[in-house]
Specification:
The structure is a single chain. The chain folds into three domains: 110 residues, Tetrapyrrole methylase, N-terminal domain (Cobalt-precorrin-4 Transmethylase, domain 1, 3-Layer(aba) Sandwich); 108 residues, Methyltransferase, Cobalt-precorrin-4 Transmethylase, Domain 2 (2-Layer Sandwich); 43 residues. The relative contact order is 0.11. Strands 3-2-4-1-5 form a five-stranded parallel beta sheet, with helices on both faces. Strand 8 and strand 9 form a beta hairpin. Helices cover 44% and strands 18% of the residues. By secondary structure, it is an alpha/beta fold. It binds S-adenosylmethionine. S-adenosylmethionine binds next to helix 5, strand 7, strand 8 and strand 10.
C-alpha cells in the first residue's frame, strides 16, 4: 500500500455498512491506529482481519502521534479508525492529519458512515444548507446560551447528544426557539431499534417524556432552519413575477436573475420560492 495516513470510516451500528475499500485498507495497512483497540479488535475479528493495533485516542501522549508520523515517513501505511463512524468527526484525529500534512505526508480519506450525515439524509429537514454543531455544552445555562446564539441560523442544525441529556436538551431547545420550531430525533441509526421522527419541538418533548425508550441508545438531534419570513417581506407583484420565472428555470437561477433587477437578496427570493412550494 502507498505510504499514507488512511482515515477509515467504520459502521455506526450495522456491520454490513463497512465498505470494500475500508476492508482492503484495514487488512493491508502496516498498522491500525484505533481509538479503542478492544472495540476495533471486535470489528476486525468479525471480518477475519489480523492487524497490528496501536492505541490512539484523545488522551494519547503527543509522542504517539509523532510515532505514527514517523511510521508513514518511513514508508508504512497507517489506518486511523475511531469507535464508530468517520474518524475526526467529533472524534480524535484532526491534529494527526495536520501533523501528517505538515510533514508533507499523504492523507487518504476512505469514505463511509457518519451519524450526522446519515441522520440528515432521512430526517426530512432542508439539507441544502446545514451546520454540524457536535455536542452542546453539558450544563443547562451554557447550553441555553449556545442555543440562543444559534436560534437565528438559516440552516438545518445537527447535534450529537448523550441519551441521559436528550430530554433536557429538547426542553431547552423548546424554551429558546419555541415549541413550533421543527426538530428531528434520529436514534440508533442502522441498528435494530432505529427510530427517526420529525415533529415540532413541543411534540418531540412530549414524546420523549412519555416513552423512556426514546432516551436510550445513540442519538442525533436536528433543528430546522429559523423562519426567514421571506413570504411576508416580498412585494406581491415581485413574488408573482418570481413564481412565473421559476416555472421556466431552476429556482436558484430565477432568484439570482430577479435579484439583479430588484435589489432584493437572492437568498431571500429563493427562500420565498421554497416557502411557496411547501404551502
Ligand atoms: N465519528 C462519529 C461519526 O462519524 O458519526 C461520531 C462520534 S461521536 C463521539 C458519537 C456520537 O455520534 C453519539 O453520541 C451519537 O450522538 C452519534 N451517533 C453515533 N452512532 C450513532 C447511531 N448509530 N445512531 C445515532 N447517533 C449516533
Amino acid at each position: 500500500m502507498e505510504p499514507a495516513l488512511y482515515i477509515v470510516a467504520t459502521p455506526i451500528g450495522n456491520l454490513g455498512d463497512i465498505s470494500r475499500r475500508a476492508l482492503e485498507v484495514l487488512s493491508g495497512a502496516s498498522c491500525v491506529a484505533a481509538e479503542d483497540t478492544r472495540r476495533t479488535g471486535q470489528l476486525l475479528g468479525a471480518e477475519g482481519i489480523k492487524a497490528r493495533m496501536i492505541a490512539y485516542h484523545e488522551h494519547s501522549a503527543p509522542q504517539v502521534a509523532q510515532q505514527l508520523v514517523a511510521r508513514v515517513a518511513a514508508g508504512e501505511s497507517v489506518a486511523l479508525v475511531s469507535d464508530a463512524g468517520t474518524p475526526t468527526i467529533s472524534d480524535p484525529g484532526y491534529r494527526l492529519v495536520r501533523m501528517m500534512q505538515d510533514a508533507d505526508l499523504k492523507v487518504v480519506p476512505i469514505p463511509g458512515p457518519c451519524a450526522a450525515i446519515v441522520a440528515l439524509s432521512a430526517a426530512g429537514l432542508p439539507s441544502d444548507r446545514f451546520a454540524f454543531e457536535g455536542f452542546l455544552p453539558n450544563r443547562g445555562e451554557a447550553r441555553r446560551r449556545r442555543l440562543e446564539l444559534l436560534a437565528g441560523a438559516e440552516a438545518t442544525l445537527i447535534f450529537y447528544e448523550a441519551p441521559h441529556r436528550i430530554l433536557a436538551t429538547l426542553e431547552d431547545m423548546q424554551a429558546v426557539m419555541g415549541g413550533e420550531r421543527e426538530g428531528a430525533l434520529a436514534r440508533e441509526l442502522s441498528k435494530s431499534f432505529e427510530t427517526i421522527r420529525r415533529a415540532p419541538l413541543s411534540q418531540l418533548c412530549d414524546w420523549v417524556r412519555s416513552d423512556a425508550n426514546q432516551s436510550r441508545g445513540e442519538i442525533v438531534l436536528l433543528l430546522s432552519p429559523a423562519r426567514t419570513d421571506a413570504t411576508a417581506s416580498i412585494d406581491p407583484a415581485l413574488g408573482e413575477l418570481l413564481r412565473g420565472m421559476a416555472e421556466h428555470m431552476p429556482a436558484r437561477q430565477a432568484a439570482k436573475l430577479l435579484s439583479t433587477y430588484s435589489g432584493v437578496r437572492s437568498r431571500q427570493l429563493y427562500d420565498f420560492l421554497l416557502e411557496q412550494r411547501q404551502k
